[in-house]
Design brief:
16 helices; elongated; binds manganese (II) ion; binds zinc ion; Leucine Aminopeptidase, subunit E, domain 1; binds ligand BES; alpha/beta; Aminopeptidase; 20 strands
């Protein structure tokens, strides 16, 4: 879909639809809505009066413009934003996401919209943030994945153009900027959804490699890919161990975006990329196993975020590390009881081959520490336990530095992909002690998300590190506004917001990491444990 920003009266927009909003239970319209209502001779007010439309979040009413009414568009769509005092930009995204689907269903090919949610205190009343949310709601809400539908191609409806209408010259530049960020961020999320939607017989580690190289080419990012012989030479025994049961060769992808100055320490992002997780010899039950094609969301989010950082020209150095493999139960697969030697030199007893994510991340994290990153963040669909602990509305966050965790939490609140911290106390480390190796790869059922993070922490060296568990949020069982059914593309928005905040100087972690002394203070403040 093509998105443009113009400055003109909404009434004069010749689109198939214009999209207006209203806060729940308020009896008056304001701004553009009031103007259009007047042009429609009070027909919108009529909807409120007769109780047909209250402004409930997700509610949508469509009116056709009648001859003689001074609105050029064919339809006027009114959407509810919910109660003003409970309002948020995430609700704006959800409302817009729902409304654009109604617009598409109505057969409209184009729509024009003002910026919604401008008055929200959350956005600091910033018009740019609201414009971004409006565009994200629309682009993410209209997402469809039809790459494999040969039967329905002729019937698929699509909205072709979106016009964001600025109400005045003063706000135009800000709206343009916000809308353009919204476009870049939505493209990143769309990219993640696409990668996760593609079935595992197509989306192999080799396919991910091609996608990474394509992004690198387009965005002027450097991309290096390690193949099995390189991994063997380096000693990436954990990643190699996971790949043994598969016929697909593993790939270790390294992206380097250098937008900062040469001496500046990079942000390192590591993303779990298991293009299919069958569980390996510890085979998963058949129910819902098909969803394990999305066990690469973390890596896709890293790829998307590094690409977006380049597109946004963020003045930062960012390293993206993507260990990619299948987890399959082939004849030469790793077996329970096998011991792997990781890149760090530490040995791991594999108790359960289905706890493969932490194995590939172990080598990914160790590799990342060699860049001496300012901060190290990994993101992974790591544990089913995270779904149990947090349900589908929060990303689990753990780590060894309170400031970095706060930074991620703040970014989550801002972008709508919220995180919730779990403890990483030293008591949990008991659970991953092995009788025969340095550690084992599972800690039993209690605190499964925590013991997984405890395992990861053994591979971060001295880095300021945080781990994001997106297992509960990467897949949605139902459609919710801008979140589709199936792969949600979670993680990209959070990582990009985190990077943008850092680019704006709001980096608590960097401050903590800047000097030796303050760094030690940061470690002290940490509620985690340094391995
Ligand atoms: N990819 C799964 C985790 C997962 C589960 C992601 C559900 C999304 C939805 C991971 O590799 C896994 O299998 N974890 C095991 C770990 C266990 C064996 C310690 C799990 O959570 O059951
Ligand atoms: Mn698994
Ligand atoms: Zn997995």
């Amino acid at each position: 879909m093509k998105m443009t920003v113009t400055q003109q009266r909404l009434q004069d927009e010749a689109a198939d639809a214009i999209l207006l909003s209203h806060w729940e239970s308020e009896d008056k319209f304001s701004g553009e809505t009031a103007a259009i209502d007047a042009a429609l001779k009070g027909r919108l007010r009529e909807l409120l009066k007769n109780g047909e439309f209250s402004g409930r979040l997700g509610q949508v009413s469509i009116l056709h413009v009648a001859p003689g009414e001074r609105v050029r568009a064919k339809r006027v769509v009114l959407m509810g934003l919910g109660k003003r005092k409970e309002g948020s930009l995430e609700k704006v995204r959800r409302a817009v996401g729902t409304a654009v689907k109604a617009i598409r269903e109505a057969g409209a090919k184009s729509f024009a919209t003002p910026v919604h949610g401008r008055a929200l205190p959350e956005s600091g009343r910033a018009t740019g943030a609201a414009a971004q949310a409006t565009v994200e709601g629309a682009l993410l809400g209209l997402y469809q994945f039809n790459a494999y539908r040969t039967d329905q191609n002729n019937h698929i409806k699509a909205v072709k153009t979106m016009t964001v209408v600025a109400d005045g010259a003063e706000s135009l530049a800000e709206i343009q900027q916000g809308a353009s960020a919204g476009q870049i961020i939505s493209d990143a999320v769309t990219f993640v959804r696409d990668l996760c939607n593609h079935p595992a017989n197509v989306m192999t580690p080799t396919y991910v490699e091609h996608e990474a190289k394509k992004i690198a080419r387009e965005r002027g990012i450097s991309c290096k890919v390690l193949n099995r012989p390189d991994m063997q030479r380096l000693g990436m025994g954990a990643l190699l161990g996971v790949s043994l049961g598969s016929h697909q060769p593993p790939k270790f992808i390294i992206l380097e975006y250098r937008g900062g100055s040469a001496h500046e320490r990079p942000v390192a992002l590591v993303g779990k990329t298991v293009t299919f997780d069958s569980g390996g010899i510890s085979l998963k039950p058949a129910d819902n196993m098909e969803q394990m094609k999305a066990d690469m969301t973390g890596g896709a989010a890293v790829l998307a975020a590094v690409g977006a950082a380049a597109r946004l020209r963020l003045p930062l150095n960012v390293i993206g590390i993507i260990p990619a493999t299948e987890n399959m139960p082939g004849g030469s697969a790793t077996k329970p009881g096998d011991i792997l030697k990781s890149l760090s030199g530490k040995t791991i007893e594999v108790i359960n081959t289905d706890a493969e994510g932490r194995l590939i991340l172990a080598d990914g994290l160790t590799y990342a520490t060699r860049y001496h990153p300012d901060v190290l963040v990994d993101i992974a669909t790591l544990t089913g336990a995270c779904v149990v602990a947090l349900g589908t509305h929060a990303i689990g966050v753990l780590g060894n530095n309170a400031a970095l965790i706060e930074e991620l939490q703040a970014a989550g609140e801002q972008c709508g992909e919220r995180t919730w911290q779990l403890p990483l106390w030293e008591e949990y480390y008991e659970q991953i002690k092995s009788d025969v190796a340095d550690m084992k790869n599972t800690g039993g059922r209690p605190g499964g998300t925590i013991t997984a993070a405890a395992f990861l922490s053994k591979f971060v060296g001295e880095s300021v590190w945080a781990h994001l568990d997106i297992a509960s949020t990467d897949w949605s069982d139902r459609e919710r506004g801008h979140i589709p059914k199936g792969p949600t593309g979670v993680g990209a928005r959070l990582l990009i917001q985190f990077l943008r905040n850092r680019a704006n100087g709001a980096s608590a972690g960097a401050r903590a990491n800047g000097k030796k002394t303050s760094r030690r203070a940061a470690a002290k403040r940490s509620n985690g444990r340094r391995p």
